[in-house]
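User: Show me sequence and structure for the first protein, then do the same for the second.

Assistant: Starting with the first protein.
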Amino acid sequence: MDPMGVAALVVGGASGLGEAVARALAHEGAKVAILDREADKAGVVAREIGGFSNSCDVTNTESLETAITSARTAHGPARIVVNCAGIAPAGKIFGRKGALPLDDFARVININLVGSFNVMRLAVADMMGLEPISGGERGVIINTASIAAFEGQVGQCAYAASKGGVASMILPAARELARSGIRVLAIAPGVFGTPMVTGMPTEVQDSLTAKTLFPHRLGEPREYAALALHMIENQMLNGSTIRLDGAMRMEAS
């Protein structure tokens, strides 16, 4: 799909990976709407790229529906949806304070997995009403998984489970929506230089970088955005979760 003139939703687009995607899509001529809990930051990015922004909580259906409706009013129904909203708190099953509170586990699942599905189902509802374009395509959805889905470390049970769920739903979603000309994909990034990571202690960042074989550095958000753009433009990509990790394989801890 050529992004030029196409309405696009970037969820979690106020910073990090999502911001890079929003900027890349705008550069390619897409009409970009940024949905994010950080309304002020989203507004700044939207103004800089000539897009639209709205406050949004992916775990709250009313909030998400309102944000998507506002974006639809501004740009029309979205054919491109990239979901980068997520959190990555660490927590051992049993730590110094005892068993991990169940609410902590549920919060990660609710934001990363249930939130991703919530975005996808509402986006698909809009796409279904669109006329197919080149090649019979109605839309493309890209979710964000993680290499932790496959090699979660100690303290990552909640995060790994949430991202494993994202990766697991890509193929069945793509199979279901294929007849409607809607593609579904995911990117599983390694360790990227986003606020989530750059806020960690230097020694932690250095340890993570040491595990990235080549290039021997943190990933850059623009590289995630470049892959997202390629996925959007390459119609044969469908039903896959693609690792973007510099050959990194996470160790146990």
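Switching to the second protein now.
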Amino acid sequence: MDAQQLLERQSFTELDARSRAKKLLDEGTFTELLDPFERVTSPWLARQNIVTQSDDGAVVAKGTIDGQPAVVLGIDGGFQGGSMGEVSAAKIAGSLELAAEDNRNGIPTRAVILFETGGVRLQEANLGLAGIADIHAAIVDLRRYQPVIGITAGPIGCYGGMSIAAGLCSYLIGTREARLGLNGPAVIEQEAGIAEFDSRDRPMIWSFTGCEQRYRTGLIDVFTADDADAIRAAVIDLLRAGRPEACRSERVAGFLKRLSEIDTSAQATPQQAAAIYGKGFES
């Protein structure tokens, strides 16, 4: 990318969740469901003296992508770290369920999920976990009919139960700024010690869980610049490619085989992980 292209490109990461959804949908087709004016907020945060947000940090946008029906589900990383509570999870799960129902009725609705989330909202505990489980089930249902594409683009990344949701998607797109992992750096350090994972060592963290490394290890499908047009183009390409022969979550034997090659007695390195995972994951 030359200097002029760098100046002209629009950062996807710098857009909020609503603007990201608008950018992905075909121009003029954006319609938001349960928008902020509906005032559907978390009933639990206010009881804990926590300021609520009128969309509970989840944007549900319906329209078309490449001329075909689509729903874009955006998670607002600026509200409670993009964490999932009862309402935000229900908005996402319910939208995916309706998209699957569309397909059963002959309407080929596909879905894009914008992951900017640390996982479950601790203040809502089991309610958030149950909501995330509903999201998992809805992704698996919808991906039988149409590709479900996940995107993680910003510095919050995608962690916790929502990283499992990302792993269930048909395809994943990531940028250099983003990370993807089950447990966050601070959690790993707390449980295993600083010698295992130093949560203050940003280069080390990105070398293991950054999307560039995740691309090398086959855990995401497209690694792209933080460019809104490039990300939209990647989404369209993946939708045109259709459903993959096997999603990552269906390649259990392949993943178990690769995990068995890891020497847990020695400190892992990004290079070793890339070498082992780079061999592929046959079903």
